[in-house]
Amino acid sequence: MLLVSEPVLGMDEQAALAAVIDSGWVTMGDRVREFEQAFARLHDADDSIAVSSCTAALHLILHTLGIGPGDEVLVPSLTFVATANSVLYAGARPVFVDIESSEVPLMSLGDAEAKCTARTKAVILVHFGGYLAERDSWQSFARRKGLLLIEDAAHAPGLPAAGTFGEAAAFSFYGNKNMTTAEGGAVIAREPLLRDAIRRARSHGMTSGTRQRLDSRSPDYDVTILGFNYRMDELRAALGLAQLKRLTEWNDLRRRLSVHYRQLIAECCGSIIVPFTSSWASAHHLMPVVLPAASHRQTVINGLRSRGIQTTVHYPPVHRLTFYNDLYPDCYLSRTEDFARRELTLPLHPRMTTATVELVVRSLADALNAECLMEAMA
User: Fold this and answer.
1) 289-304 burial: b if 16+ Cβ within 10 Å, else e
2) At what angle do helices 234-268 and 354-377 cross, to 10 degrees?
3) Residue 245 catalytic?
4) pLDDT tens digits for the chain (378 residues)?
5) Are 154 and 177 in contact (CB under 8 A)?
6) Beta strands in the chain (DSSP E)
7) Nearest one of 310, 263, 265, 259 to 282, comparing CA atoms
8) What is the spatial distance between Cα 100 and Cα 245, in angstroms, rounded to a whole number?
């Protein structure tokens, strides 16, 4: 089966994990700090904070910025559910915003403006598929409305511009991301005081960690703020350090594969929309396409799967998931819902070649043609 996403793991990762095990120190320590510094350098940032997941990163950002009960946070519904969940964790209310269009499935600035109220305190931008939102427009909007600007950059590791939009950005290293630590995430925040507060909050609000107390030969610590157990461990940090060495190379390969996809789809599947443009700043995490309105997506999925090709959907709209639909029964986002009905994510990862892309596009064209033939015969 050709998978939608597949991590690249090899001898470097095995050696890194073995070194941690041999060291006898597996909880947060020197490798976590080394990983934080290396990840920050890749993004031209002063520092980063490694955490247990991107969800933890988002929660820490919101909590540390003081978002809480009575506050509203603008979020896209076209995202993984964690984006909205993190707002609820902070005690605030997520307000779902539509996308611009099928061609640009990023949060709509116009709809965000329409949904601002006196209670709106922040906006979480999601760089869907690794494609960066328009920084200047969103920064201007946030200044005008007095809002905190936060990035959900789960799909955009390795892009220096990610993490430069506002107060902070959250990144993901889950197993299907451009680089992985299995589970894990990071925060980039430009303001040192915010970084320090997030760093303390990830570990119960403690003034020192276990390794720091060992090195200083003092067992004393204090707890100065409400914190959480959102630490990264040495095993994940070691994986991350090995993966970071190739992230730029992998992102460039993803870019070249995406360009090839676009060219072939334009030639072979003219009725399909490929969101964004080839020149759009992106980490090329996903290869989303939008099927014709008359297509039956499951038939296309079945046709590709019969040829050994996995596909998936990014994403079912959060506001239509049962939990959120119960909370927001009257929420309707026409562009998000149309996109979500027709979107299909094709395989894209560094283990692929241009020949693999050609196989996928040929199979996609055949599946669409077979569907048309079946309809003509019906």
Assistant:
1) bbbeeebeeebbbebb
2) 50
3) no
4) 999 999 999 999 999 999 999 999 999 999 999 999 999 999 999 999 999 999 999 999 999 999 999 999 999 999 999 999 999 999 999 999 999 999 999 999 999 999 999 999 999 999 999 999 999 999 999 999 999 999 999 999 999 999 999 999 999 999 999 999 999 999 999 999 999 999 999 999 888 777 777 777 778 888 988 999 999 999 999 999 999 999 999 999 999 999 999 999 999 999 999 999 999 999 999 999 999 999 999 999 999 999 999 999 999 999 999 999 999 999 999 999 999 999 999 999 999 999 999 999 999 999 998 866 565 555
5) yes
6) 49-51, 72-76, 93-97, 120-126, 148-152, 168-172, 185-189, 287-290, 343-346
7) 259
8) 35
Break the chain into its structural domains and give their ranges. 11-98+105-242, 247-377
| Beta-carbon count within 10 A of 228 CB | 17
Phi, psi of 37 (to 5 degrees): -70, -40
Distance CA 42, CA 25 (A): 26
- End-to-end, the C-alpha distance of the chain in Å comes to 31
Strands 343-346 and 287-290: antiparallel
Instruction: Specify the fold of 247-377.
Output: Aspartate Aminotransferase, domain 1 (3.90.1150)
User: Any residues with CB less than 8 A from the CB of 324 and at least 6 apart, and which?
Assistant: 81, 84, 318, 331
Among candidates 312, 373, 226, 298, which has minimal Cα distance to 3?
Answer: 312
Tokens of 326: 């119960």
Q: Report the CATH architecture of 11-98+105-242.
A: 3-Layer(aba) Sandwich (3.40)
- Cα dist from 48 to 24, 127, 240, 333, whole Å: 25, 19, 13, 35
Contact 97, 76 (CB under 8 A): yes
Catalytic residue among 115, 145, 177, 245: 177
Asked if 328 and 96 touch (Cβ cutoff 8 Å), the reply is yes
- Spatial neighbors of 326 by CB under 8 A, at least 6 apart, are none
Model pTM score: 0.95
